[in-house]
């Protein structure tokens, strides 16, 4: 089964990415985690995201596009990145999520990936 692990991080976590004193430890933790998934053969794909200050939120209301700077969610945690893994079941996905660096300071959402949709019947 394929699962998406969506990683959230706190503002302090995002700050660690660029601070010369903390960036090596921050990125080292993520590299070790991704490498472990790759070595286990469960890593499919993924990407980190730039900080929430670069986000835009789009809504369509009454036929008009509304764009708001920043993420929509008003929370202490923001989406930081995601990976797609293929594992036997939810328990295995939860085990991998618990190993993510962001699980210690924020959270990891685990969600099954939909199977590709087939086109209309001929």
UniProtKB/TrEMBL annotation:
It comes from the Bacteria. Residues 35-114 form the YCII-related domain. Pfam families: YCII. SUPFAM superfamilies: Dimeric alpha+beta barrel (SSF54909). Belongs to the YciI family. This is YCII-related domain-containing protein.
């Amino acid at each position: 089964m394929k699962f998406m692990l969506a990683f959230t991080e706190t503002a302090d976590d995002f700050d660690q990415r660029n601070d010369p004193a903390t960036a090596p430890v921050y990125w080292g933790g993520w590299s070790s985690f991704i490498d472990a998934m790759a070595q286990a053969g469960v890593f499919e794909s993924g990407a980190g995201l730039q900080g929430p200050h670069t986000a835009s939120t789009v809504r369509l209301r009454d036929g008009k596009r509304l764009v708001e700077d920043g993420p929509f969610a008003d929370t202490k945690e923001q989406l930081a990145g995601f990976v797609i893994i293929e594992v036997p079941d939810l328990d295995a996905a939860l085990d991998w999520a618990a190993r993510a660096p962001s699980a210690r300071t924020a959270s990891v959402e685990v969600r099954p990936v939909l199977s590709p949709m087939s086109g209309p019947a001929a």
